[in-house]
Amino acid sequence: MARLDLTRQAAAAGFSLPALELTDEDREAAIGTWRGRMVNEHISARVFAGLIPQMMAAEIDASAQAEVARMIGEELRHGVQCAAVVHALGGQAAADLPPLPPVAQHPEVGPLEGFTRNLLSICCLSETVAVALIGRERLETGPESLEAVLKAILADEVGHARFGWRMLDSLAPNFDRATRERLGDYLITAFAHFRDHELLHLPEVASPSARAEAIGVCDGREARRLFADTVDRIIVPGLERRGLPGGEAWRAAQRLPSAVV
Ligand SMILES: [Fe+2]
Ligand SMILES: [Fe+2]
Q1: How many CA atoms lie within 13 A of 163 on its CB side?
Q2: Ligand closest to CA 47
Q3: Of 36, 190, 193, 200, which residue is most buried, by most CB within 10 angstroms?
Q4: Is residue 103 situated within a structural domain?
Q5: 19 C-alpha to center of ligand 2: Å?
Q6: pLDDT in tens, 91-136
Q7: Tens-digit pLDDT profile for residues 40-91
Q8: Domain presence at residue 32
Q9: Domain range for residue 144?
Q10: Could you tell me the distance, in angstroms and rounded to a whole number, from the CA of residue 201 to the centre of ligand 1?
């Protein structure tokens, strides 16, 4: 199993928190949360990296490829920013990496449609929900230095989500009916995976305390509600506006059994 060790980068970041009156339980919960984020942010880099060869094969404009290349660096930096918080909380900024399956290539369709599938899944679904979750969390955050970290990460995630919707704006008018239908079928699978992934990371439990919530241990029940609201109010209408059957796909995905409760 590969290990991610950002202890050196975390110490070098020079990030500090004010004196916090935390119970051991609150501190452990906060360290666990930020360490989990550190891993998730770091491995997001590999997803954007996987898009680049696909964009080349699909003859996507080179400026858009450069934008994605910048996003790789942003996700790696988010990983270090979260590691710095772990370090400031007194934790070790290192963790085992989960198995990392390769980014889906979708060989059953052409390069442009394959890229569109990944764009939908990564930017229009995952990054759009990330914006909602981090945006809300920022409002709950206590220490100013921590709020500044979330603000900086949020600004990048907004860029990642917007990139997806903007690319879709330019690609969608050229989809024929069969392509829209195939993308609709793909969206059912993408939504089902997305739901399971988010629910796994948002356990249905309250934050252990208001103090823990102020340093990033969110209320999982509220986060789950926000996730569902974001899909219903932002993602589905965004897909529908661009001629993709988002509502039908989301309803179909919800009927599929979930491995997560
Ligand atoms: Fe990120
Ligand atoms: Fe992102």
Answers
A1: 25
A2: 2
A3: 190
A4: no
A5: 30
A6: 999 999 999 988 999 999 999 999 999 999 999 999 999 999 999 9
A7: 999 999 999 999 999 999 999 999 999 999 999 999 999 999 999 999 999 9
A8: yes
A9: 3-96+109-255
A10: 15
